[in-house]
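Meet my pick.
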Amino acid sequence: MTGTVSFDYRRIAEGYAKDRPFLHGQVMERLTKKIQKRYKNGLDVGCGAGLSTKALRQVCDRVTGADISAEMVRAASALYTEPEYSFVQAGAEEIMAPPDTYDIVTAAGVINWIDEKRFLPQMASIMKEGGILLIYDFWISGRMEGKPAFTEWYEKEYLKEFPKPPRKERVWTKEDTEAFQFELLCQETYSMDCEMSLEQFVRFMLLQSNVIAQVEEKGKDIEAVRQYFEESAWPYFASGIKEKLIFDGYSWYLRLQN
């Protein structure tokens, strides 16, 4: 993989296992509305601690999660021990073909960090003809239902304190995918909401790449960062009830051509 932030830290892997919202399941529901089919053998690229693999299992009999991070693979393997799951450590561009090729591949939150000119040919080599490649991602938008002041805090305070690390954010085109045997069926954007308490919000924000870049990569004190979120975000959660945060996302549906 390419990119400027590593996620191969035990703190991050343990946090992904416990504190990431399971919005991946809603993405799979969107898939089933687009393509009404059940799959036999699936691959989840960049599986992290396994939430996206769990989501793929909703539509697939047998699933393999792959991640470049040993810590993520360790966390996922400990959580999902059923025989329908398996996990391997491998970069997105280097995953080997199984005895039975994959009829669906998902890649959640991955393409910002990979070399697509290596990734797509590799996927073509390990997928069945006509197989589906679902590329998707979602992220906290900086919007909170009914509280526009939260957006001002997010954009003017949080992003100033924790700027977004560099990543590739180009939207793939039909020409990009056809060059590697994939037909681009559809691209869609959408929003999803997730209710969080202040405590859940703080734990979630500590897992953002913006924060990882400052803590794990640059040595900023994690407890000081935790205190920053607890104090600066508190006014937006002061009622004591869970607040509804808005996440933006996208899905790209590709099919391996014959």
